[in-house]
């Protein structure tokens, strides 16, 4: 069944996530066939199945035997045939048993005790970022405050020297922001028809990222010679099936971390603060009852999921909620829709920091469930603590600009005003 509701065009997301459209699909066509026309200079694709219900998003994510992350990888757009082998070397794009082995190895750098070890550092970084703007009484919250935290956290946990930190930011923007001219390599005549004759360079190809791979290689060499208490040192000494990670495996994982750990957290921080400005009662309650912080973070993640979708490929002809899906079809799960499924969350459109929101799927589910969730949660906790207590009257004073992307729901600009206060460090 084809529906007229467009959840594909990246321009739809410039006004935020289209929850009404998602809700209609979830109710009327929970697994629907969607067209994939040529937009933003990218060629048309064959179309895909959009999966909207919580139950089905979980099922697809948890059943790699039927829904493969490897066959067509995990992005909605098919990789170019010449990039397929390269893209499949990323853990995100592997199926069991290959995925299990690599995941087990890199998980050694993400144990709860390793994550806790970075809590004070993240708290300090959040405090410094608020210090930078607090005396001014106004700023662009997205650019001046939230953009810095994921990058600094990532650099710190990976052990990237201060002088190189801006590089992480550039690479993540090149890869994630590619549908948005301001951030990536998108065609500046976005949306102009007909599609250009020559295809843009795929920003996820090795060719577009040679500087990043060389940097990862050099950093690994450095950490082998100068071990430190950081994630890269853990990784270069980790073993897969009794052998260390190959250079290629390491470099692909570095690439994955740079992308996965940056734009995701950086998008949800301003979205969360914006949501608190729209729900002052929840803001006051959290300040009065800081013990609710962990529940509040889960509710923000449910309410403002930064990742819109991931893709799988059907490994055989099968049925999903009555729809006949053919072997090779793309199956795309929409997390924001799952998070508002009334069968799982009562009054799903209500923002309520006291609800149990832990069933949200913002971090995915199944074998690929987000490895960095612990780091993301810490960043949210510490940043909300700073902002909610030190900028209690913060208000948004201008247009909130969203990224033009059907993959990441990101806020690019959010002008805010607040009563100036003292720096604390
Ligand atoms: C709020 C912030 C974040 C969100 C919403 C998020 C979301 C996700 C989702 C939905 C997946 C599953 C992909 C799939 O099933 O195909 C995922 C995987 C992953 N995430 Fe995150 N992520 C966040 C932050 C981070 C951070 C901070 C890091 C690293 C420090 C990270 C590292 C990863 C990695 C390595 C994977 C791949 C796991 C695998 O393939 O086994 N993420 N993330």
Description:
The protein is α+β, with helices and mostly antiparallel strands and 425 residues long. The protein has a single domain, classed as Cytochrome P450 (Cytochrome p450, Orthogonal Bundle), CATH 1.10.630.10. It contains 17 helices and 14 strands. Strands 1-2-10-7-3 form a 5-stranded mixed sheet. Strands 4-14-11 form a 3-stranded antiparallel sheet. β8 and β9 form a beta hairpin. The radius of gyration is 21 Å and the shape is globular.
Which tags fit this structure?
425 residues; alpha+beta; Cytochrome p450; 5-stranded mixed sheet; 3-stranded antiparallel sheet; 17 helices; 10% strand; binds protoporphyrin IX containing FE
Write the layout of secondary structure elements.
Blueprint: H1 19-28, E1 31-34, E2 48-51, H2 54-62, E3 67-68, H3 84-87, H4 98-106, H5 112-116, H6 119-134, E4 138-140, H7 141-146, H8 148-158, H9 165-176, H10 210-225, H11 231-237, E5 239-240, E6 243-244, H12 247-260, H13 263-278, H14 280-288, H15 293-303, E7 309-314, E8 318-320, E9 323-325, E10 330-334, H16 335-338, H17 373-390, E11 395-396, E12 401-402, E13 411-413, E14 415-417
Parallel strand pairs: 2-10
Antiparallel strand pairs: 1-2, 3-7, 4-14, 5-6, 7-10, 8-9, 11-14, 12-13
Bound molecules: protoporphyrin IX containing FE (HEM).
And the CATH topology?
Answer: Cytochrome p450
Number of strands: 14
The share of residues in helices is 40-55%
Spans of at least 5 consecutive residues whose pLDDT stays below 50 are: 184-198
Alpha carbon gap, first and last residue: 58 Å
Which whole number gives the mean pLDDT? 90
The structural domain count equals 1
Number of helices in the DSSP assignment? 17
Q: For the record, what CATH class applies?
A: Mainly Alpha
CATH H level: which superfamily? Cytochrome P450
């Amino acid at each position: 069944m084809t529906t007229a509701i467009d959840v594909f065009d990246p321009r739809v997301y410039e006004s935020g996530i289209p929850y009404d459209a998602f809700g209609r699909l979830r109710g009327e066509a929970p697994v629907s066939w969607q067209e994939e026309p040529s937009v933003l200079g990218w060629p048309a694709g064959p179309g895909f199945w959009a999966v909207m219900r919580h139950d089905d998003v979980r099922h697809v994510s948890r059943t790699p035997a039927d829904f493969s992350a490897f066959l067509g990888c995990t992005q909605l757009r098919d990789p170019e045939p010449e990039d397929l082998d390269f893209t499949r070397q990323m853990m995100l794009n592997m199926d069991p048993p290959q995925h299990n082995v690599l995941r087990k190895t890199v998980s050694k750098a993400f144990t709860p005790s390793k994550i806790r070890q970075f809590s004070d550092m993240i708290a300090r970084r959040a405090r410094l970022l608020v210090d930078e703007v607090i005396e001014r009484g106004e700023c662009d919250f997205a650019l001046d405050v939230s953009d810095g935290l994921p990058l600094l956290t990532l650099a710190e946990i990976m052990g990237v020297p201060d002088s190189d930190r801006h590089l992480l930011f550039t690479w993540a923007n090149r890869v994630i922001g590619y549908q948005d001219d301001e951030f990536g390599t998108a065609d500046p005549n976005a949306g102009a028809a007909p599609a250009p004759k020559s295809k843009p360079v795929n920003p996820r190809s090795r060719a577009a990222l040679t500087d990043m791979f060389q940097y990862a290689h050099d950093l690994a060499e450095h950490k082998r010679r100068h071990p430190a208490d950081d994630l890269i040192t853990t990784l270069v000494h980790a073993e897969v099936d009794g052998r260390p990670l190959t250079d290629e495996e390491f470099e692909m994982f570095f690439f994955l971390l740079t992308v996965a750990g940056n734009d995701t957290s950086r998008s949800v921080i301003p979205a969360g603060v914006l949501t608190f400005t729209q729900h002052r009662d929840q803001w006051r309650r959290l300040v009065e009852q800081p013990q609710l912080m962990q529940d509040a973070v889960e509710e923000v993640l449910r309410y403002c999921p930064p990742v819109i979708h991931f893709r799988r490929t059907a490994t055989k002809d099968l049925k999903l909620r009555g729809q006949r899906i053919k072997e090779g079809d793309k199956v795309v799960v929409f997390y924001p829709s799952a998070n508002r499924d009334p069968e799982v969350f009562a009054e799903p459109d209500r923002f309520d920091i006291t609800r149990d929101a832990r069933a949200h799927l913002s971090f995915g589910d199944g074998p690929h469930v987000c490895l960095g969730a612990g780091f993301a949660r810490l960043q949210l906790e510490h940043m909300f603590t700073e902002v909610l207590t030190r900028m209690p009257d913060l208000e948004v004073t201008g247009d909130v600009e969203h990224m033009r992307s059907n993959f990441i729901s990101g806020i690019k600009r959010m002008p805010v005003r607040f009563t100036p206060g003292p720096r604390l460090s």
